[in-house]
Specification:
Elements: E1 2-5, H1 15-42, H2 49-66, H3 69-78, E2 82-84, H4 85-118, H5 123-126, H6 129-141, H7 143-155, E3 164-165, H8 172-178, H9 184-217, H10 222-250, H11 259-283, H12 286-297
Parallel strand pairs: 1-3
Antiparallel strand pairs: 1-2
Length: about 300
């Protein structure tokens, strides 16, 4: 069986423009996230847990975008929009695994900032290298069996109607719309996974930052408060962008799903957020800016 990814077929006069635009964005994402990954790995000044987590997050962003954008670019360039059931399921599985890992890793990064600001004397002991590796490994691996099982459940449904996916990649909502029969159990499974990997890490992150902010406000000097805020403000902005778009996409009632709205939201969290994240981290971090200047001057 094959599906047809309609993508932006309703805008035939913009196909080459969109192809060029998304190619430029993809290159920017690869270069910006790749630069942050290399800097945090090569520069001795960036060997702290915060930058270790940031390098893993940048690598995840590259993996996540590479699971969707190359296929979309190929469809725009060749106008061959067909994708096999196995390829569609594989794409969805990788997208879900990378997305789940990013959600958990953002919560881990919030915990890292909590220990650094609220318990600075114990920070080297609590966030030692072994613990950091375990947290990153857990973020990567926890979602693999769950997301694989979810993908299997979705593609085990019978597809007896149209094979046209009104989307630019194999995402859950448009695939479920093509399924026949009762999909209530599958929808409940999707909502459960979205809560576990989206809402729970988001609420934990918000709770962590409420504690961090309350501690920062108690600091005696304005300089120390500003310095403490600067170390976590970038991460907080990324959290709001990342979780906000994902929660709206996957936790909306099915009756409120609009195919055009789904596409816009998906573009936001699959393309724009990974492009903005390196800018947010680098422009608000003096150490990263200095390292970039050194790299460019070589």
């Amino acid at each position: 069986m094959e599906f047809v990814l309609l993508g932006f077929a309703d805008m035939p006069h913009l196909q080459w423009f969109l192809s060029g635009l998304f190619l430029i964005i993809y290159i920017i994402i690869l270069m910006s996230n790749g630069t942050i990954f290399l800097i945090t790995k090569m520069d001795p000044a960036f060997q702290s847990p915060m930058y270790f987590f940031l390098s893993n997050f940048s690598f995840l962003e590259i993996c996540y975008v590479s699971a969707t954008l190359p296929k979309m670019l190929m469809n725009l360039g060749t106008q061959r929009r067909r994708i096999s059931l196995v390829a569609c399921a594989t794409q969805m599985c990788f997208v879900l695994i990378f997305r789940g890992a990013e959600c958990l890793l953002l919560a881990v990064m919030a915990y890292d900032r909590y220990v650094a600001i609220c318990n600075p004397l114990h920070y080297p002991l609590v966030m030692n290298h072994r613990v950091c590796i375990q947290l990153v490994t857990g973020s990567w691996n926890i979602g693999i069996p769950i997301m694989t099982g979810l993908t299997y459940q979705i593609f085990s449904l019978p597809f007896c109607g149209s094979n046209q996916i009104n989307h630019f990649f194999c995402d859950i909502p448009p695939i479920l719309k093509l399924a026949c029969g009762d999909i209530f159990a599958n929808e409940m499974l999707v909502y459960t996974v979205a809560v576990l990997f989206g809402m729970v890490p988001f609420l934990l992150t918000l709770g962590t930052y409420s504690k961090i902010i309350s501690i920062i406000l108690k600091l005696p000097s304005a300089t120390s408060r500003a310095k403490a805020f600067s170390t976590c403000s970038s991460h907080l902005m990324v959290v709001v962008l990342f979780f906000g778009s994902a929660i709206v996409t996957y936790l909306r009632p099915n009756t409120r799903h609009s195919e055009r709205t789904d596409k816009v939201l998906s573009l936001f969290y699959t393309i724009l957020t990974p492009m903005f994240n390196p800018m947010i981290y680098s422009l608000r971090n003096k150490d990263v800016i200095m390292a970039l200047r050194k790299l460019l001057c070589k």
